[in-house]
Amino acid sequence: MHLFTKLKELIFREPVNKNVPQKAAAVLRIASIGIILYLLCMMVGVIFAKNPLLIAITLVLTSVYFYVFYITYEDKLRESLVLFNVASVFFVVLFYIVFGADIGVQGVVFVVVLVDLLLWRQHPMYTILVWYVIRIGLYIYGEYRPELFAFHDRIEAVFCVLSILLEALAVVFTGLYFTKDAFSMERRLQEYNKELEHVASTDPLTKIWNRFRMIEHVNRCVRRFNRSEMSFMSIAIGDIDFFKKFNDTYGHECGDKVLQSLAELFSKEMSGYGAIARWGGEEFLFLFENMNGDEAHTFLSKLQRKVNQMEIPYDNEILRVHMTFGLSEYDFGISLDDNIKIADDRLYKGKTTGRNCIIY
Q1: Dist. CA 218–CA 235, nearest whole Å
Q2: Is 207 left (phi over 0), alpha (psi -120 to 50) or beta?
Q3: Is 9 helix (H, G, I), strand (E, B) or coil?
Q4: Which of 223, 288, 290, 352 is the most buried (most CB within 10 A)?
Q5: Helical ranges in the chain per DSSP H
């Protein structure tokens, strides 16, 4: 376990240059380690082949991949990637020609393509195309020319399994390493978008919907009506009577407290019956879904009584609030602005005829 921890720290150590992506360096290190392990096993095979040239070439290739691993810690990621590709071309082509397809060396192509696809920023498709041309060329070569040296079937099977394990290592590592962060980033973006949507649609003082969110919701309700999913809808505008007196007498903090207390009451009472929004200043807009004008008037009358009964504590005093409402059954044949104007005109009439009333 201690060895595994040390290896993990070695693989994921940040490069000297902080501008070099840590993930890119880690991917290249993992791929290099996989091929080094494969080459070390191949060393056993070439020793059995008793070919000094192949032994020397295998040692050189192993050293090159060790060097690739090493320079990923320096500011040489591009150089290490180029060297990784050159060494891999030489390695795959040479060992395929010498030992044939049965040892699975062609599987290294998949690993290199995966690395290039993730790390090669400039024209990655050209690199991938070259690799698959090489792969097809090796296949055609293998159809017409036999291998130069044949291992025992069991040894070839071992090398083939090692190649498969190398491919699996590359896929599993890159899959877990990149998709984990990708899903995490996507989740954070979704949460951030939800937060932005909430901020954009909520009045910062009262924490209820703002004007724009309500307009969006009303338009959605209109579409539901057009699909025969809603029969009636009513709309009302409520305005706090003599609101300026609270600000002038007690200060703007008192006015804020009044707005917040009313918003809390409206949110609780309107739940399941419609929607509420701060329309601007001391005005609130109420949307009563699936209620005709008479039903909305009955509901609004009960709500008005609760407003009149409210006691708002502030600075060792108990404040009482009254409101005037303009109510209209929604006419789906005219625009939203026209429906709001009808309710607003009725609100104005209530303001000029005594206040603390509902004009319908």
Answers
A1: 10
A2: left
A3: helix
A4: 288
A5: 2-11, 22-49, 52-71, 77-99, 107-119, 124-144, 153-201, 211-226, 243-250, 252-270, 293-309, 336-352
Q: Quick one: pLDDT at residue 274?
A: 94
Question: Helix, strand or coil for residue 316?
Answer: coil
pLDDT greater at residue 49 or residue 251: 251
Please state, in angstroms and rounded to a whole number, the distance separating the CA atoms of residues 158 and 163: 9
Question: Which range has the top average pLDDT, 144-148, 186-190, 243-247?
Answer: 243-247
Q: What is the token pair recorded at 295?
A: 């039903």
The string of DSSP letters for 281-315 reads TTEEEEEEET--HHHHHHHHHHHHHHHHH--EEET
pTM for this prediction: 0.54
Given a cut of 80, whether residue 199 has pLDDT beyond it is: no
The identity of residue 184, as a single letter, is S
Q: Which of 37-51, 165-179, 328-342 bottoms out in mean pLDDT, i.e. has the lowest?
A: 165-179
Structure tokens at 270: 């309107």
- Cα 109 → chain centroid: 32
